[in-house]
TrEMBL record:
Name of the protein this chain belongs to: GFA family protein
Entry keyword annotation includes Zinc: yes
Alphabetized Pfam families for the sequence: GFA
Keyword Transcription: no
Amino acid sequence: MADASNDDRPVYQAACHCGTVQFSVRLTDGVRTARRCNCSLCRRRGAVAVSANLDDISVTQGQEALTLYQFHTREAKHYFCSKCGIYTFHQRRSAPDQYGVNVACIEGMSPFDFPEVIVSEGRIHPKDRAGGGSRVAGWLRYESNPE
């Protein structure tokens, strides 16, 4: 993790569903980085992710239970708990110096805390697209039932 004495960003505690994998994380820009993606994996996984620098995640328990999944170019590294199957975080292909962190794993947070989340265009990855760059595919909206 980064030098805590010069960093005023909060440290969040996070865990998979069964609690086998536990980690602490500092987010790059709080929850303002929340987004989803419509690539083949993210469509199926359905998680809202926020950003953290590589050195801002520390697995405090269950490192041995993390399972790595890679596909296509095998550049991105997607980590899951081998016991409960929950996606915890992934090292991004588009920004290899960052992790995308599953909001649902962060204590006190839920994907339903966001009334609107940007969905990034991932069906054609920015690194595979002429000119590169991120594109917005759409927005995912959540409105709670007032009852």
